[in-house]
Each structure stands twice: as structure tokens, then as C-alpha cells.
Amino acid sequence: xxxxxxxxxxxxxxxxxxxxxxxxxxxxxxxxxxxxxxxxxxxxxxxxxxxxxxxxxxxxxxxxxxxxxxxxxxxxxxxxxxxxxxxxxxxxxxxxxxxxxxxxxxxxxxxxxxxxxxxxxxxxxxxxxxxxxxxxxxxxxxxxxxxxxxxxxxxxxxxxxxxxxxxxxxxxxxxxxxxxxxxxxxxxxxxxxxxxxxxxxxxxxxxxxxxxxxxxxxxxxxxxxxxxxxxxxxxxxxxxxxxxxxxxx
Length: 249
Hints:
This protein is an alpha+beta fold. It has two domains: 163 residues, Alpha-Beta Plaits; 59 residues, no CATH class. Strands 2-3-1-4 form a four-stranded antiparallel sheet, with helices on both faces. A hairpin with a 3-residue loop joins strand 2 and strand 3. Helix 1 runs antiparallel to helix 2 and helix 9 packs across helix 10. The longest helix is centred in the N-terminal third of the chain and has 23 residues. It starts with 11 loop residues before the first strand and ends with a helix.
């Protein structure tokens, strides 16, 4: 997720989605959901991440997070997901990948977008027909807002609503909009354009410059963008052999 100047929001706010490999139900049981939620609660403070909203569904998780540094979220997610994957494989007596190869991480630019994202996340189990009311679902932050518990403390409320007082009416009045976040994809070409603009360089400079390629790989890794070497080589319009020769070791 590139650093983008925000007029309406402070620091970094992003919607992050974790999916099971091949859309498998890696969070299907109560034990699965509880384990993942426990890990979120255990590590969010350590990595200086504020959890604005979350919802754990059977095959994916929505997380709306706020932090001062993009890397905080990357490190937080890496810690939580790696521990969960190892535990999941152990409990299910399986081996191999647990998550889809590519994380979905989308920057939230305005307060209006943030409100819509909060509502969308909490409405996930309602739209899926699991419950009829957001408050009936046990694995989202909806009730945390109503009771000011869990991740929702004064700091979060002041960031979201500018005050921790009399916020519930504002919270409950947020209107639902189908943002279709499950279908979001992070386009590698757009990421590349953001990187070039950030560095102030032309695409032609990347093709045979080992230092710039190193910086681009680091940029992808730091921001939790995961692409294959073939995809990156194709993006840069270079052969796989050239990419492997230039790639940092």
C-alpha cells in the first residue's frame, strides 16, 4: 500500500482481506475463528496497529486498520497469519499453503470511505444469511462498538468519530453500500506506477538497474504485495533470465 497524502484522514488507514487458499473455509469452526481473533488481540498493540473494524467469516477475514507506518500492518499481518497457518495445519493434520498467494490491501482515503467500509465489514454475515442482525454475530467488531470493548477504545473512537462521547448514534446511522470488497484486486500495474511516481523515475530506467529493482522488490514486500517472479518480469518487459540475474539475493 503506497503512502498517499490524505486530507481527511491521519496516518495510514487500509482495508485488508485474508482469504483461504482456493477460497477454502480456513475459519469455518468456532475454534478456527476464536484462534484467529485471539492472535489479532495478542499482537495488535505490539505492532502499534489500531483495529477499526473486523469480521471473521468462514473463508475470509476483513480487517480495517489504522497505524502511523505501513510497515506496522505488514509485520502485524505476517506475525498473525504465519502463526495461524502453522496452528491450522497442525490441528487439521495437513501440510501446504493456507492462504491465497496475494493479500488484498486497499488504502482508505476519506472519512466517508472509512464509514462505508466499517458498515460493509459488519454487514458481511447478514448479507451471507448467517444472521439477521449485525449484533447477533460473535466474530465481528460490531458489538465492540456498542459496548466499547475489545479493540474499540477511546483512541479508536476519537479517530473514527472525533469523539468517544455520544458516538453510538453516528455509528448506527452509517448506511450500507455494497462495496464488493471480496472482488477487490490490487493491480500490479497501478502499484508499479505508484512506485515510479514515488521514486521520480521512468519505467525505462528499471529494466537493467539492479538497485532500482531491489528497491521495487523491497517496496512490494514491505507493503504485503505478493507476485510471482514471472509476473514481475512481465511487468518490467524483461526476460525471466534477466530478472533472475538482476534480482537481489
